[in-house]
C-alpha cells in the first residue's frame, strides 16, 4: 500500500503559542489556564512543564506545587486562532491541506507522484522549515506519514515532540505494539474497559483481533473501521450533520446573582444565534440548563417555530429564565442549546399566523413584513459585529455581561473570528 497521508500535529500548541508571542516565556515551564484562578486547571502545558508532571487537566494550585517556578498565563483564544491560520498557510505553501481537523491538527493527501518515501520525508522537512520561517521557531510540529490518515495520526504521536515518523505497510502491525491502548485514536477510558472485557489488554492483542471481534467490542461498524485502518486501508469519513448549537459558562463570583446571570444567558444566546446563522441553520428548540451555587440543577426545553432571528431567540431565553425555580438563588453555571436544527433552505414557513390575521381582520402589519424587518435588523447586526467585534452592537439583554463567556476553543471546532470574536 502506498503512502497516501501526511499528518501534522502541533506540539503543546497553546503553550507554544504563548512562548511564541511572549519571548520571556521561552524555555520556561508554562501552563495555560482558561481563567486566572487557583481552582482552574491547565488546558495546556509546555514541555518544560510536562517534565514536572504537569499535563492537561492539572489544577493550577497543584501545578504550582509540582513546579514552583511555573508561569501560569490566561488563554488567548483569538490569538491562537489567528496564529492557526498562519500555520495552515505555511503548510499550504509546501503541500495542499486536505482538511483541518482541530486547532492543532491537519492532514494532507499525498498525490500519486509524491509517494516515494524520500519525497514524503522531504515534504515533511519543508513543512517544518516553512513553519519556522513564516511563523516562528517556537512552534514545533510532529509529522506522521502512512498509508492512511488514521495511521499517519498515530505516527505523529509516536515521536513527539518535533518528531517525524514514516509508517510503511511492511511495518504493520509491529510498529504499533509500543503504544498503550489509550494511545490509540478512538480508544477512551470506557472503550478500554470494553476491550478488556473482550480479552484485549494491549495493542498487540488489538492488532491480532479479528474484524468480527472488534465489531462486537465496539458494538458498531466503528470496530470494522478500526480493523481496516490498522491494516493500512483507506476508510472514508462518516458524514455527520450538525444537530445543535450551544454554549455554557461557569460564572465568576460577580456574575452569580440572578440579574447578572440573566445577562450572561443573553450573551450566550446571541453568540449561539450568530453561529446558527453562520451555518445557515434554523433552530426548532431552545433549552436552558442551570446549576445552582448551593447545589441542585434545573433544565427545561421549549419547542419553537423554526427561526434564526436574534430578537425571537432573546425572547425565548427570557421565557425560559422566568420558568426556573428558586428565583433568588445564585447560579454557578449556565448552559443553553439551540436544537433540532434544520437547513434554512429546506424550511417552509408556517401559514397560520397570516391566516389568523386575515380571519380576524387585524390591522397590524402582516407577519411576513414583520419577519422581514427583524431579519434585516439581525443581518445588519451581524455585519457590524463581524467588522467591529461583538461588543460594538448587541441586544440590551446582554448588557453588563459582554466581557463574560469569552471565546473558547473546543476539540474539533475552530472558532471563526468573524463569528466568535469579542
Automatic annotation (TrEMBL):
<feature type="domain" description="UmuC">
    <location>
        <begin position="5"/>
        <end position="188"/>
    </location>
</feature>
<dbReference type="InterPro" id="IPR036775">
    <property type="entry name" value="DNA_pol_Y-fam_lit_finger_sf"/>
</dbReference>
<dbReference type="GO" id="GO:0003887">
    <property type="term" value="F:DNA-directed DNA polymerase activity"/>
</dbReference>
<dbReference type="GO" id="GO:0005829">
    <property type="term" value="C:cytosol"/>
</dbReference>
<dbReference type="GO" id="GO:0042276">
    <property type="term" value="P:error-prone translesion synthesis"/>
</dbReference>
<dbReference type="Pfam" id="PF11799">
    <property type="entry name" value="IMS_C"/>
</dbReference>
<comment type="similarity">
    <text>Belongs to the DNA polymerase type-Y family.</text>
</comment>
<dbReference type="GO" id="GO:0006281">
    <property type="term" value="P:DNA repair"/>
</dbReference>
<dbReference type="InterPro" id="IPR017961">
    <property type="entry name" value="DNA_pol_Y-fam_little_finger"/>
</dbReference>
<dbReference type="InterPro" id="IPR043128">
    <property type="entry name" value="Rev_trsase/Diguanyl_cyclase"/>
</dbReference>
<dbReference type="GO" id="GO:0009432">
    <property type="term" value="P:SOS response"/>
</dbReference>
<dbReference type="InterPro" id="IPR050116">
    <property type="entry name" value="DNA_polymerase-Y"/>
</dbReference>
<dbReference type="GO" id="GO:0003684">
    <property type="term" value="F:damaged DNA binding"/>
</dbReference>
<dbReference type="InterPro" id="IPR001126">
    <property type="entry name" value="UmuC"/>
</dbReference>
<protein>
    <submittedName>
        <fullName>DNA polymerase IV 1</fullName>
    </submittedName>
</protein>
<dbReference type="Pfam" id="PF00817">
    <property type="entry name" value="IMS"/>
</dbReference>
<dbReference type="InterPro" id="IPR043502">
    <property type="entry name" value="DNA/RNA_pol_sf"/>
</dbReference>
Amino acid at each position: 500500500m502506498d503512502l497516501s497521508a501526511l499528518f501534522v500535529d502541533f506540539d503543546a500548541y497553546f503553550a507554544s503559542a504563548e512562548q511564541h508571542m511572549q519571548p520571556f516565556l521561552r524555555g520556561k515551564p508554562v501552563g495555560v489556564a482558561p481563567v486566572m484562578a487557583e481552582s482552574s486547571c491547565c488546558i495546556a502545558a509546555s514541555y518544560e512543564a510536562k517534565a514536572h508532571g504537569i499535563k492537561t487537566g492539572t489544577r493550577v494550585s497543584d501545578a504550582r506545587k509540582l513546579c514552583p517556578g511555573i508561569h501560569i498565563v490566561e488563554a488567548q483564544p483569538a490569538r491562537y486562532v489567528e496564529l492557526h491560520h498562519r500555520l495552515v498557510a505555511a503548510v499550504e505553501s509546501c503541500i495542499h491541506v486536505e482538511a483541518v481537523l482541530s486547532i492543532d491538527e491537519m492532514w494532507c493527501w499525498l498525490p500519486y507522484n509524491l509517494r516515494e518515501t524520500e519525497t514524503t520525508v522531504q515534504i515533511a522537512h519543508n513543512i517544518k522549515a516553512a513553519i519556522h520561517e513564516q511563523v516562528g521557531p517556537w512552534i514545533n510540529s510532529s509529522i506522521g506519514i502512512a498509508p492512511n490518515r488514521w495511521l499517519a495520526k498515530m505516527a505523529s504521536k509516536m515521536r513527539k515532540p518535533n518528531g517525524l515518523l514514516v509508517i510503511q505497510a511492511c511495518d504493520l502491525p509491529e510498529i504499533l505494539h509500543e503504544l498503550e491502548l489509550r494511545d490509540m485514536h478512538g480508544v477512551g477510558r470506557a472503550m478500554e474497559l470494553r476491550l478488556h472485557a473482550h480479552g484485549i489488554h494491549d495493542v498487540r492483542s488489538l492488532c491480532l483481533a479479528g474484524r468480527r471481534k472488534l465489531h462486537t467490542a465496539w458494538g458498531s461498524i466503528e470496530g470494522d473501521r478500526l480493523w481496516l485502518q490498522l491494516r493500512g486501508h483507506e476508510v472514508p469519513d462518516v458524514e455527520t450533520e450538525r444537530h445543535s448549537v450551544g454554549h455554557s459558562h461557569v460564572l465568576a463570583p460577580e456574575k452569580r446573582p440572578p440579574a447578572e446571570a440573566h445577562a450572561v444567558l443573553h450573551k450566550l444566546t446571541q453568540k449561539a444565534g450568530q453561529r446558527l446563522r453562520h451555518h445557515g441553520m434554523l433552530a426548532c428548540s431552545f433549552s436552558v440548563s442551570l446549576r445552582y451555587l448551593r447545589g441542585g440543577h434545573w433544565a427545561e426545553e421549549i419547542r419553537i417555530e423554526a427561526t434564526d432571528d436574534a430578537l425571537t431567540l432573546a425572547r425565548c431565553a427570557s421565557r425560559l429564565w422566568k420558568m426556573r425555580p428558586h428565583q433568588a438563588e445564585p447560579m454557578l453555571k449556565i448552559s443553553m442549546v439551540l436544537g433540532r436544527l434544520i437547513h434554512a433552505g429546506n424550511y417552509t414557513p408556517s401559514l397560520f399566523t397570516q391566516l389568523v390575521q386575515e380571519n380576524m381582520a387585524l390591522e397590524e402589519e402582516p407577519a411576513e413584513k414583520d419577519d422581514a424587518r427583524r431579519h434585516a435588523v439581525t443581518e445588519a447586526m451581524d455585519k457590524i459585529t463581524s467588522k467591529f467585534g461583538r461588543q460594538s452592537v448587541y441586544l440590551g439583554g446582554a448588557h453588563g455581561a459582554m466581557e463574560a463567556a469569552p471565546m473558547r476553543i473546543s476539540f474539533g471546532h475552530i472558532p471563526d473570528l468573524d463569528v466568535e470574536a469579542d
